[in-house]
Amino acid sequence: MINTRTTSGLQKQKQCFFCTNGINEIDYKDTKSLQRFLSSYAKILPRKKTGTCAKHQRKLAQSVKRARHMALIPYTTR
Which CATH number does the domain housing residue 56 bear? Predict the structure, then answer.
């Protein structure tokens, strides 16, 4: 695992949630799990914050967009 240097010392790189749990497909109907990767303003969080790999970040974004289009999750909170 790659260590990254911060002001407080060494910090481990975050593991992809989907890779560690063996999840290949991200279901757009599972809004509870999608909420974990959204900010308080319903924006998709970046890879640096969530720790997802590039492959799953793309699938996550597609699932969030589908859920928004089907009105399962809001576009914004205000």
Answer: 4.10.640.10
pLDDT of residue 74 exceeding 70, the answer is: yes
- C-beta of residue 49 within 8 angstroms of C-beta of residue 43: no
Question: 34: Cβ–Cβ under 8 A, 6 or more apart, which residues?
Answer: 26, 28, 60, 63, 64, 67, 73
Domain contains 61: yes
Does residue 34 lie within any of the structural domains? yes
Query: Which residue range forms the structural domain that includes residue 48?
Result: 15-69
Per the structure block, which two tokens stand in for 8?
């407080």
pTM: 0.80
What single DSSP character describes residue 73?
A: S
